[in-house]
User: Fold this.
Amino acid sequence: MSLSKSGWCERPVLRFGPDAATTAGDEAVAVEAPVALLFNGVSHVVMMATPLNLAELGLGFALSEGLLDEVAQCYGIDVVHTSLGWEVRLEVATRSFAKLQERRRQMSGRTGCGVCGMESLQQWAQAPARPANWSVPDWLTEWRTNDVQAQCAVHAALLELPGRQVLNALTGALHAAAWVSPQGQLRQVFEDVGRHNALDKLLGHLARSGAAIDEGWVLMTSRASHELVHKCIRAGVPLLATVSAPTSLAIDAAQAGQLRLWAWCRDERFSAFA
Assistant:
């Protein structure tokens, strides 16, 4: 990843140290900017994000939130920088736009909770659907009987990940979502101030590139929340691993959606919750 100034900036800082020592200087700070997603010219949501890989963010969000059923329903994406922030303009199929319009009528607001706009508890309780013809990949089936193989893959990915978190190394403020091979090799890493955004960027990239979703798994530098689990289920991801703890709702959702969920991935250990 290029160290684009879109992703970071410098701010003056006073540093206080031992013996009342104070020094002045500049420090690299992660950029957090408003990013609006527009579908066929109509604004759907504004989120706070790191303004890099925004085309991937827009497509990944549309797919992981169920606004698009497949990447072919997106005809084009333009990213525009305005005086107020960034706009990601997606042209989508008429059928998808009609479904999005119906959803907008139900929404009075949107936050990181992932629940806003739902009409009832029954609607919320519906687990996201796996893609058609989805099945557990052979390599993950083999891991069920080979814990050592699984541990080696997780350990290898964790060792490589810090070196691929370029912006976080500079600013210390970004999450990462990584696409990992069954052998533990990092294939792609996307960073953002928001963990959901980092995952959407990764899922958008996989969709645009036509990558086989069953040929890898997702590693994230965050807790495992139900939003991340839902996004992975919709995308067809077979395994989500996080460096921090899961929530009870994330575990329940993973079990319902046949998503393998590993958390507390540190060094050579992890905890399998689903």
The radius of gyration is 19 Å. The chain has two domains: 33-125, 138-272. Residues 108-117 have pLDDT under 50 and may be disordered. Residues 147-164 form the longest helix (18 residues).
